[in-house]
Amino acid sequence: MSDTGTRRRRAVSEDEKSQRRDEIMSAAKEVFARKGFHATTVADIAKQAGLAYGLIYWYFDSKDALFHALMAVEEAALRAHVAAALAAVAGPRDAGARDTGKEVPFRAYLQACVQATFEFFEADRATVRLLFRDAHALGDRFEKHLGGIYERFIDDIEAGVVAAQERGEVITAPPRMVAYTLAALVGQLAHRRLSTDDGVAAAQVADFVVSLVLDGLRPRPPAPGLESTTDSSALSAR
């Protein structure tokens, strides 16, 4: 970069830089959602943002770097939205308990998480396209980042499942397997609803998911004369 460019970058305040980065990412999200990652050019993003083409590279080294930054921002926004929903359910309790659902009955925990996720995606459908359509189709360049996002959400769900199992609210199954099952169900429904307007509100879909899951996960006594197949050792041995 030239000395002139370096001086100009230094002259921009941190607040201005942050605001400009946000503007660029907002524009990029719109274009990526509309055209897809591969078909989008940096020039397209600059045009959407109303900026000169070269200015994009003062804030992001490449289109890939911009996409990575955008995924990180969307993950943080979704996590904050879900955490706020859990906080509303938990009430004035320990912050850690609110974030993980450890002190929240599993039905209320699951309802809050699922409904908040659907509401977030439906309010910002571009995010669904980014995380479920584009990122999965981009191969190795984004696989590790996307996998990290997914696993962090699995960690959160697993913590809630473990807490529910300790309270006797959920069957004794491998908690991470339960977490993956829940995530797959919610993810597929969110993706499907992106292209299908069925007129069903997010709260109704969340109610359906919660009822479906809890009917299957609620502890129940084994049938007379039959060995229980719901404990973790039996599942692990299969």
Automatic annotation (TrEMBL):
One of its GO terms (molecular function) is DNA-binding transcription factor activity. Keywords: DNA-binding, Transcription, Transcription regulation. Gene3D superfamilies: Homeodomain-like, Tetracycline Repressor, domain 2. Residues 11-22 have a biased composition (Basic and acidic residues). PROSITE patterns: HTH_TETR_1 (PS01081), HTH_TETR_2 (PS50977). Residues 1-22 are annotated as: Disordered. InterPro entries: DNA-bd_HTH_TetR-type_CS, Homeodomain-like_sf, HTH-type_TetR-like_transc_reg, HTH_TetR, Tet_transcr_reg_TetR-rel_C_sf. This is TetR family transcriptional regulator. It comes from Mycobacterium shinjukuense.
